[in-house]
Write a structure and sequence with these properties.
Distance between the termini: 55 Å
Helix content: 55-70%
Strand order of the largest sheet: 1-2
Radius of gyration: 18 Å
Number of helices: 10
Shape: globular
Length: 241
């Protein structure tokens, strides 16, 4: 019984790794292609850097995919987690709320671990890999040292044991995570200026905000929202990517 279980869980983990890697290649490749069309020449001369970004990112895909695959397998086989399929299991108003809870929880974890990664010891050990992308490109979204990738890989698998969420809303969370991760690094602002400079935009992170982090290092640590940066005095406004 133990060996078949291990094989099944391992197969699910490998399948999820392949899914995460394919999602990365499609998303980053798609936005890299868009960059070539919208900002031709922006990535000129960065071939060696991009190859390194892809290599680190595929390694990160395995680190993200393995625990996610085991959790997904446990959910399917044994009912692990609080993921649900029945649209009527919770009130409809809970659907968008659960997405916001996941994004804010992820953003909170990211902000504080990101600040930790900028402490000299942790930066030299791990985070320097990500900041080796100068300037970052659409391929850099998952370009992490394994230690940093591991710190990010535990968030969603942990949350599904703590906060109920419909499987479709979980898919939306993962989509937002992927799109924001890529667009925040691609070196130009995808979203309209009217949104970026609006009252709502003042609380959201886009390429204009995160690019400033890659310029100055000691600011703009958030992932989705500027809440923690504003509360902690680490918000340094927008760049002009």
């Amino acid at each position: 019984m133990i060996l078949p279980t291990v094989i099944a869980a391992g197969g699910a983990a490998l399948a999820m790794t392949a899914i995460v890697a394919l999602r990365y290649l499609l998303a980053s490749g798609g936005f890299a292609l868009a960059t070539a069309r919208v900002r031709p020449g922006l990535y000129a001369g960065l071939g060696r850097q991009i190859r390194a970004e892809i290599g680190w990112s595929l390694l990160s895909a395995a680190i993200y995919g393995l625990p996610a695959g085991v959790v997904a397998w446990g959910w399917q086989q044994f009912g692990w987690t609080l993921i649900y399929r029945d649209w009527q299991a919770y009130p409809l108003w809970y659907l968008p709320l659960s997405v916001l809870v996941y994004l804010f929880a992820h953003d909170t974890w990211f902000y504080w671990t990101h600040r930790l990664m900028h402490r000299p010891r942790w930066f030299r050990l791990a985070h320097a890999v990500h900041h080796a992308s100068r300037p970052p490109t659409a391929w850099a979204a998952m370009s992490f040292h394994p230690i940093e990738a591991l710190s990010g890989a535990v968030v969603i698998p942990a949350l599904v044991f703590l906060v109920p969420i419909h499987v479709a809303m979980l898919g939306l969370v993962l989509t937002v995570m992927t799109v924001m991760g890529v667009t925040n690094h691609m070196g130009w602002e995808l979203f309209p200026r009217a949104l970026v400079h609006s009252r709502l935009g003042g609380w959201l992170i886009t390429a204009s905000h995160h690019h400033r982090h890659h310029e100055l290092y000691s600011c703009n640590y958030g992932l989705y929202f500027r809440v923690w940066d504003r509360l902690c005095g680490t918000d340094r406004g927008l760049s002009q990517p």
